[in-house]
Specification:
Elongation Factor Tu (Ef-tu), domain 3, Rossmann fold, about 30% strand, 18 strands, disordered N terminus, 6-stranded antiparallel sheet, about 325 residues, 3 domains
Length: about 325
């Protein structure tokens, strides 16, 4: 079996398949070039993938975690994003090599739950599909899935047999808010189920609001920050320094502090790169921060920021060396 890469290292895998999974969504199957087993993963895990151009982007694994010979990811081509998905979909073909991290999991399926409620919005089906495959392969506990998309043509895995059956509701709202699926009857009465939700920020916010009366440890969210890291119309470039005497580095619109510091040789810990895990928390000593994470409390934001998503509201930001 190939050795798992050390923390922060990447392994080169071969693209065994690269094909459309739905309108605007591309599927990639990755295998070790020499064959054999890959490092294991658990349901809900993701890979960090170096896309053409050099940036690292996170994508959830959607195949059965019992499979050790391949990783499968599905990527939504997002013209309004930071360019990673476009570079991957347009620039990578079958037979190419991709550098990827070992699988990591910030969205673990809790084995203690007696049953599960899954809510997936659009491409958010990917980690949840791995969970469903795992449960079915193990003859596991009962679940219900609510898979919400805009239209059938853009629904990945629509014909997948693991998404068939009475436990699965697939709903298309055709982009009309009046046709949105009403989840309130699902969450009105708390049960012993654990809820797993992955999808666009508005969906997750809605589920969070509807489950405020559920036990906190039974509601789980996954978001690789498509909305948190997406450039905003009023974004402006700014400078960042590591220490007051450090070099002033330009952070352009569309790039993150984390990416710029890495390009200039700084080795920094990170995981989700979406402002949801807390790994890249960094202290700052000067400047005003435009906080965009989902982790820090108001008090913590007085001295710290998440450099994977947050920007400066001032012309310059000085980080603690």
């Amino acid at each position: 079996m190939p050795d798992a890469p050390a923390e922060g290292e990447l392994m080169a895998l071969r693209v065994a398949r690269a094909e459309p999974a739905a309108e605007g969504i591309h599927l990639f199957e990755l295998r070790h070039p020499a064959g054999g087993e890959l490092p294991p993963f658990t349901p809900g895990a993701h890979l960090s993938v170096r896309v053409p151009g050099g940036a690292l982007r996170n994508y959830s694994l959607c195949n059965d975690p019992h499979e050790r010979d391949r990783y499968v990811i599905a990527v939504k081509r997002d013209e309004g994003g930071r360019g990673g998905s476009v570079a991957l979909v347009d620039g990578v073909a079958m037979g190419d090599a991709l550098e990827v991290s070992a699988p990591r999991n910030l969205f673990e399926l809790d084995p203690r739950a007696p049953e599960y409620l899954f809510v997936a919005g659009g491409i958010g089906i990917t980690p949840i599909l791995a969970m469903i495959r795992y449960l079915k392969a193990t003859g596991g506990k009962p679940f219900r899935l609510f898979y919400l998309t805009r239209h059938a043509a853009g629904t990945a895995f629509l014909a997948d047999p693991d998404l068939a059956g009475e436990a699965v509701v697939i709903h298309h709202d055709e982009g009309d808010a009046d046709q949105a699926y009403d989840l309130w009857p699902v969450f009105e009465e708390p049960t012993k189920a654990h809820i797993y939700c992955c999808g666009p920020r508005p969906l997750m916010d809605a589920v969070r609001d509807m489950t405020g009366h559920w036990p906190e440890n039974s509601v789980h969210f996954e978001d690789f920050g498509s909305d948190l890291v997406r450039p905003r119309e009023d974004d402006k470039p700014f400078r960042v320094r590591v220490g007051r005497e450090g070099e002033a580095l330009e952070v352009p619109v569309g790039a993150t502090i984390l990416e710029v510091l890495r390009l200039h040789g700084h080795k920094l810990p990170s995981s989700c790169e979406s402002g949801t895990c807390g790994t890249c928390r960094t202290r700052y000593v000067e400047g005003e921060v435009d906080h965009r994470d989902l982790v820090l409390t108001p008090a913590e934001r007085e001295t710290s920021l998440m450099i994977c998503v947050s920007r400066a509201a001032s012309d310059e930001l000085v980080l603690e060396p």
